[in-house]
Amino acid sequence: MHNVTPLQRKLFPLLYLPSRLYAMAMRLRRQWYESGALTSYKPERPTISIGNICWGGTGKTPLTEWIVQWAINEGLTPAVLTRGYKSIPPELPYLVHEQSTAREAGDEPLLLAKSCPEAHVVVDPQRARAAKWIAKHHNPDLYLLDDGFQHLGIERHLDLVLLRPQDLTEDWNRVIPSGPWREGEEALTRTAAFLIKAPQDDFQALEPFCQEFLAQYKAPVFPFTFSPKGLTRLDRSESARGFGDEPYLLVSGVGEHEQVQRTAEELLGHPPIKHLRFDDHYNYQEDDWKFIREKADLANAERVLCTGKDAVKLVQFNPYNLWTFDHTLDFGPGLFTNHSFPDWWRATWPLL
């Protein structure tokens, strides 16, 4: 998770000017695309960007999966265009399949391809090239641009922008290098809808900040949560609501370790006997799994629990008694609208 660091706060007077210059450069770049000085590719089908204003995780992958599942249920074939962070694909563009490895596809694209095999998940840092390729070979019904807010080389029909709670408080408009924002606040005028990963009580506490900062953009604001509904053993041989009172070891290679632990405690009713934390998008090796298993055995924890992102990378080691979360995406009532996000989305789709 990228927040304004204590050092950035201390150096803010020195970083303010470089921050404004960076925001100005991004604004100029955006104007060049809008004027046609820089060309962008326009797909023939509806194109939706799912992105954020800041660096770091905001829940883009779960939201992308929700829209993908909605499209499949409607009889549509979606294509997800993604960079594939830290991936080393054998070719570009690279169409991810269920037998791809996390090294080839990246952990999140692989997780999405396994969860939604009917979708086309394409890895390529050049989204326009990926869109042209998938249009030629598979002709999808819609395009989803993963982390696409700043990728203006491909036109979109609407931008969904995900925010963190701190983006509305201490991090507001703190652009690189003084903070985690990738563009200045004026970029948010492109937004069709904002989404904030926050429980309803936390979202209500944010409403004054939404009124102060977001009302000017005339876009609805929707809260959502990524809630655990159960556990599945990685070999799919067993599902469970919990582990009873038995100890378990927790593994996470994500940007929000504390959130993963809170999720585990909420579902299981007690904390892990030990929590091993790895860097976000960590590339696990066989020695890492041996280390994890050794720590679990020393703690008398028969079961190891991890996130889906970790599971798609650990599965190659034929892990014993490795479990992962089953999640559901829940949406709360929106702000500046009478709809929840699913209702808003269903009403907006025919207009694209």
UniProtKB/TrEMBL annotation:
Keyword Lipid biosynthesis recorded: yes
Pathway in which this enzyme or protein is active: Glycolipid biosynthesis; lipid IV(A) biosynthesis; lipid IV(A) from (3R)-3-hydroxytetradecanoyl-[acyl-carrier-protein] and UDP-N-acetyl-alpha-D-glucosamine: step 6/6
An annotated GO cellular component: plasma membrane
Chain coiled-coil ranges: none
Biological processes per GO annotation: lipid A biosynthetic process; lipopolysaccharide core region biosynthetic process
Recorded GO MF terms: ATP binding; lipid-A 4'-kinase activity
Transmembrane segments: none
EC number(s) from the headed UniProt entry: 2.7.1.130
Binding sites annotated in the UniProt record for ATP: C54, W55, G56, G57, T58, G59, K60, T61
Enzyme class: transferase
Keywords (A to Z) from UniProt: ATP-binding, Kinase, Lipid A biosynthesis, Lipid biosynthesis, Lipid metabolism, Nucleotide-binding, Transferase
Annotated catalysed reactions: a lipid A disaccharide + ATP = a lipid IVA + ADP + H(+)
Entry keyword annotation includes Protein transport: no
Listed Pfam families: LpxK
Its job: Transfers the gamma-phosphate of ATP to the 4'-position of a tetraacyldisaccharide 1-phosphate intermediate (termed DS-1-P) to form tetraacyldisaccharide 1,4'-bis-phosphate (lipid IVA).
NCBIfam families: lpxK
Record-linked HAMAP family: LpxK (MF_00409)
Family affiliation: Belongs to the LpxK family.
Protein name in UniProt: Tetraacyldisaccharide 4'-kinase
Origin organism lineage: Bacteria, Pseudomonadati, Thermodesulfobacteriota, Desulfovibrionia, Desulfovibrionales
